[in-house]
Design a protein that fits this description.
single chain, 61% strand
């Protein structure tokens, strides 16, 4: 099976906010390197990444607020 990104959560428009989670499955290390390899101090050639994180973000009068939590 291929790489997979699964988002679950909710979005509000007034005020602008989102809360939920993101799951990444079977993300190839080479894909990460292709996307952000220029800023990494290492070369990613082999392997895969599985990741789950929860997040909360909002944008209002006091700017952007964001928080991510890895279990």
């Amino acid at each position: 099976a291929g790489e997979e990104f699964v988002w679950r959560g909710k979005v509000a428009m007034a005020p602008i906010a989102s809360e939920g989670g993101l799951a990444i499955r079977r993300l190839k290390a080479a894909s990460v390197h292709e996307f952000i390899g220029d800023v990494l101090p290492i070369v990613l050639r082999n392997g895969q990444i599985d990741l789950d994180l929860g997040y909360k973000a909002s944008y209002g009068d006091d700017g952007l607020k964001a928080r991510a939590v890895l279990p």
